[in-house]
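Exercise 7b. Backbone tokens:
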């Protein structure tokens, strides 16, 4: 348990340039407190002590502004920066080494039953204000932009941006393939065909002229 806590504090030091000593992070960062409370709430939830589990999670929400349902599965070294206004739903799963900012919702759309919330891969960044809604996967190493609303699967190494979110980068490369087309130097295709036909007719006329000599 201490090892897990220590690696989480180290993750805060790595990811938050403003973070200083581990003691300061442990005492003052509500993201750390919310995850610690969640570990207790999740343990109670798994033992089927649902009321107590919910009580711990509501207590945590009151103190931290971060609401993690006791049923949610949270991986190791999660960093919640700034906290406040974060909601993580019952069937949400968050992988290892993720970074979540304030105002993030990992929620449902209201259209699904059973598994209703997203599965977040490892090393995923979910920027401030982003909403990830539905029971789909967000791939490893992906980035969700600030204020994006993600409604469908995100592949590994992708950047999702906008409302509804579009994949604009995969492994740092743009997915706006249309933007890569050279539109300024493209000739008129009809004129190109006519020119090719005219050339062909000329060749045939020259061949005929030779034969008739
Ligand atoms: C998405 C983000 C993580 C950058 O990821 P990236 O993979 O490096 O993506 P890029 O910066 O190359 O941006 C890709 C494209 O998305 C656009 N974009 C980036 N963030 C955007 C956003 N939040 N909303 C809309 N468009 C956005 C960029 O302008 C760029 O557009 P282009 O393809 O037309 O050039 C970053 O822009 C972001 O949103 N960070 C927020 C982090 C945060 O929450 N900070 C709070 C600290 S308190």
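Sequence design result:
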């Amino acid at each position: 348990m201490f090892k897990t806590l220590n690696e989480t504090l180290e993750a805060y030091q790595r990811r938050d340039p403003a973070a200083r000593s581990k003691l300061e992070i442990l005492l003052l960062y509500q993201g750390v407190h919310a995850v610690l409370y969640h570990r207790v709430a999740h343990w109670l939830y798994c033992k089927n002590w649902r009321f107590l589990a919910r009580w711990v999670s509501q207590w945590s929400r009151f103190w931290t502004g971060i609401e993690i349902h006791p049923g949610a599965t949270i991986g190791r070294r999660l960093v919640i920066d700034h906290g406040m206004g974060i909601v993580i739903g019952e069937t949400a799963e968050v992988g290892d080494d993720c970074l979540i900012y304030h105002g993030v919702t990992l929620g449902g759309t209201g259209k699904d039953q059973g598994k209703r919330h997203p599965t977040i891969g490892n090393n995923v960044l979910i920027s401030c204000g982003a909403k990830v809604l539905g029971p789909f996967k967000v791939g490893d190493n992906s980035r969700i932009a600030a204020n994006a609303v993600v409604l469908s699967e995100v592949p590994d190494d992708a950047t999702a941006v906008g409302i509804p979110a579009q994949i604009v980068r995969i492994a740092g490369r743009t997915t706006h393939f249309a933007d890569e087309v050279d539109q300024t130097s493209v000739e008129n295709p009809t004129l190109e065909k006519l020119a090719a036909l005219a050339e062909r007719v000329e060749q045939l006329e020259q061949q005929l002229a030779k034969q008739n000599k």
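Instructor comment: Residues 82, 101, 125, 127-128, 143, 145-147, 159, 161-162, 168-169, 174 surround coenzyme A (CB under 6 Å). The CA atoms of residues 105 and 162 lie 15 Å apart.
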